[in-house]
Amino acid sequence: MTRENILSFIVTFLLSLLIVPWIGKVTKRMGIIAHTNSRTIHKGIIPRTGGYGIYIAFLIGAMLFLKTDNQINSMMIGGLIIFLVGLYDDIHDLSPKLKMLGQIAAALVVIIYGGISLKDFTLPFIPSYISHIIAIIITIGWIIGITNAINLIDGLDGLCAGISIIVLFTISITSLATGRLDIASLSMLLIGSIAGFLVYNFHPAKIFMGDCGALFIGFMMAVISLLGFGYKGSTFFTLGAPIVVLAVPIMDTLIAIVRRKIHHKRFDEADKGHLHHKLMFSLELGQTKSVLILYGATALFSLCSYLYLNHKVAAFLLFILLLIVFELFVEITDMISRKYKPILTLVNLVLKRDDLPKLKESGVYSTVVRKLKGKKRYIILPLATALIISLIFIHNNRKYRDIKVQYQEASNPTSLMKTIYSNIEKVVKSRQKKEEREYVAAYFAADYYSLSNKNKDEIGGTSYYYSKNINNFKSYAKTDYYKTSNELIEKKENNIEVIKYKLNHIKTSNKRLSGLEDYNYYDVNLTLTFNQDNPILLSRSIEVTITLIDKNKHYSITAYEINANLS
Q1: Domain locations in the chain as residue ranges
Q2: Which of 125, 164, 391, 421 falls 20 to 30 Å from 44 in CA-CA distance?
Q3: CATH architecture, domain 415-562
Q4: Are residues 88 and 94 in contact, defined by beta-carbon separation less than 8 angstroms?
């Protein structure tokens, strides 16, 4: 965690801590309070505008710590739209259709203005422009879905705020581990804003966040997750990680939709069948215990996502175990319906106990048997769907399984260059992006600053430089480091060679190429050691910063600078 991340958290936390109670007092006098009905759990007069404090604290923090670009600006505009929609709903009760229109408008802002959407989404046998349209539709659906999923879990004191903090913290540490400092900064700003509010929202709550807070938080998390936070690649990886992290609110939302469909209710019709309701009433755990259990469940799913970076098998096994436990909870508490108990029914095929559901008593069993009689389409349709999904999965994963190294080895590499190139091949195939940045920068530096392997008029590192700027690079090199190289070669004094390097740090770079501002850039700081005192640089070791652009699924050098005096 960087100092700036910690400072941004502290600032927004303190701002939220100061603003939230003041907002609560003002809006309570204005009558903007949480109304009681058959579904509500709270007692007393409680304002529901804590989200206003969250939003203001985040906005101030963003102005202090974030560097603006189209993506950040679009998130701010979209977030404002969502916040205003939620605030109006808190005051006047907005219709579900108008709320949905506001969410769509906010999603379109980040897609059109910010260029934030699913990247590299393709379908087999489908033209690219159609795949792009589908990607846009999925992006809108994802933003709306996560926005409302977070809003739906705002049913107990401290529940939505606490789960959001856990999710955002996971995103932050994952982003830091993969070099996405921009996403980590966004997440920490939001964490601080929510944490300050949570102080007043934990049971017994003195203020609720309302729709203005829940919708805003859900929207921001949905958009942040689309930025990838370290999982770049196919759609399965882009959305897979955030789906796991957000598993609790996502599954609660999906189950609610299914439950309401089964009971012939509108999908937006509220009920008391959510996870927190089942924990609190069916298991009689009370508010605090129910909230802490859901915190723990979210933390475990978040652990799966983080584990995936280094221990894929362990992450997968933990995820499957959590899904089984969750499914058993759904069946035991009748969260969908009394007849929905597939795992317990299968278990009873072996145990044959009277207190467990029997197969022939299952509503699913009777429905399937009835519909399959003389209706082949009920068999063909699921099989066709499974086949299509399998083809998509195979197509997308084959692209990343059969990765070819896009970097070239020099015709006459030094010993160090051979070692680095071998490492490049390994990390590219294993998709270790942070290590790939290190080795690409190191290879370029070792090739560029070594003269022992050079012929007349030859400049090192050219194959690793950004291709459209290669001529400028060569021209500059001839007036800089390579100004006297031909003279040294003729005198056979060109035995200068980089024999080792040390990685100091890798940071997100502020340097941008004109017209390519939306790509990711990184500054890789290295210390290079030569086999002797370098007569050009007047030193045996130098510190060099190599700037990389992440484009076309590989890294290219866009700039370099050293701390040395040229002769």
Answers
A1: 3-332, 342-401, 415-562
A2: 164
A3: Roll (3.10)
A4: yes
